[in-house]
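User: My instructor asked us to take a sequence, write out its structure as tokens, and then describe one feature of it. I'm not sure where to start. Here is the sequence I was given:
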Amino acid sequence: MTPTVLWRGSTDPSAPIVVLLHGRGSNEREIAGLADVLPLGPAYAAVRGPIDVGGGGYAWFENRGIGRPMAESLRTQLDWFWRWLDEVAPDRPVVVIGFSGGAAFAGGLALDRPSRLAGVAVLYGTMPFDAGLSTDPDRLDGLAVFHAQATEDAVIPRDLLDRTWAYLSGDAGALAVTHRHTGGHEISQSILPSLRQWITVRTTS
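Assistant: Let's start with the prediction itself. The structure tokens for your sequence are:
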């Protein structure tokens, strides 16, 4: 199955690609709006999750609880995503930005093939722990990671948020930029200046 993708930004076939991954129950149209407040220059690809959960919403994997992917489902969808990405961007720098459920999928991509990505942003979500992917120390050695979470997030379990924060800012070995602020489960305006700068560095260096 070929992904449904909504493209924004540059149409230059050599431009870096920033992939936008929506949360569970959302769709590519909602996350595509994020491109409007991100830097000019890259091509932005808002991708629809492969699993229809009804009501016009989609997901990236089947789960066994919020933020806890089922390993077989995650593996299947990671392979599906890589087939698409390797076809559309075999030689282009790729940054992946995921929100909520999309953050877990973005984290899964990073753990699966860290050298394939120029950077990954895990926004208001968890890494996919205990889902068949290695989270050994230094697994993300040298990979640029942007991570944001909110102290009043009532959607993602706090134990997963804390574990993600500790891993990305410590044992993962990533080049991590981290933001923790007050607020709920949504992309805060307060992180956008830092996120824009981070994307610019990742797509112009």
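For the description part of your assignment, you could build on this observation: The longest helix spans residues 71-88. Try explaining in your own words what that tells you about the chain.
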